[in-house]
Amino acid sequence: MRIPQTLDTPACIRIEAVETLSDDWYVLKKTTFDLLRRDGSWQRQTRETYDRGNGATILLYNLKKRSVILTRQFRFPAYVNGHHGLLIEAAAGLLDQASPEERIKAEVEEETGYRVEHVRKIFEAFMSPGSVTERLYFFVAAYDASSKANAGGGNHAEGEDIEVLELSIDDAMQAIHQGDIADGKTIMLLQYAYIHVFNAERQGCLTCPHDL
């Protein structure tokens, strides 16, 4: 069942001013707008939005081995917020004008060295909608030993130094509970795979609860 939308957004938003605060690596804007509240009154608001484009992420899984492929790399924003900075993640990247399917195939090979031909989109989500415009497309794909095309490791010119990890799905889930996996998109993919890929496979229903 779809959840009904009660707000006619175009009619309820009046943009008054847009100011570009930064246009270096990505674009940071400050927008002043009027919002029509549910009680019928208009309210003036100001918001900053960070536009880095849309992205895609993927979890590679092996049903026979009950394993997944993840990466580990240094993330400076996490480091300056009190983390040691080495985050365990699913492969991901910005679309850069490509389709989500096309881009994620290239990204997962660049980061992990695994080449996959068939990827399956499971959902899409806004990861930080209070300030970041990015929409992230989530995929899963099967892998095996023959999928390994190169060593992976990321793009050296872009400063990437990526370690490739193969973990059992049970160890990966335990790592979430222990705090060793703290990346949001990766937690979402692992929880999805644990319920709808690995456990559904045992019941003979890989695409449960719906066809994907």
Folded structure, characterized:
- The chain is 24% helix and 36% strand.
- The protein has 212 residues and is an alpha+beta fold.
- The strands form two sheets. Strands 4, 5, 6, 7, 8, 9 and 10 form a seven-stranded mixed beta sheet that branches. The chain has a three-stranded antiparallel beta sheet with strand order 1-2-3.
- Helix 4 packs antiparallel against helix 5.
How would the blueprint of this fold be written?
Elements: H1 9-12, E1 13-23, E2 27-36, E3 42-51, E4 55-62, E5 67-74, H2 76-79, E6 86-89, E7 91-94, H3 100-112, E8 120-126, E9 135-142, E10 163-168, H4 169-178, H5 184-202
Parallel strand pairs: 4-9
Antiparallel strand pairs: 1-2, 2-3, 4-5, 4-7, 5-6, 5-10, 8-9
Helix pairs in contact: 4-5
Give a short synopsis of this structure.
This protein has 212 residues and is of the alpha+beta class. Helix content is 24%, strand content 36%.
Number of helices: 5
Order of helices and strands: HEEEEEHEEHEEEHH
**What is the share of helical residues?**
10-25%
Low-confidence stretches: 207-212
**Cα distance, first to last residue?**
16 Å
Q: Radius of gyration in whole Å, from Cα?
A: 20 Å
Given helix and strand content, the structural type is alpha+beta
Number of strands: 10
Features:
24% helix; 5 helices; globular; 10 strands; single chain; seven-stranded mixed beta sheet; 212 residues; three-stranded antiparallel beta sheet; alpha+beta
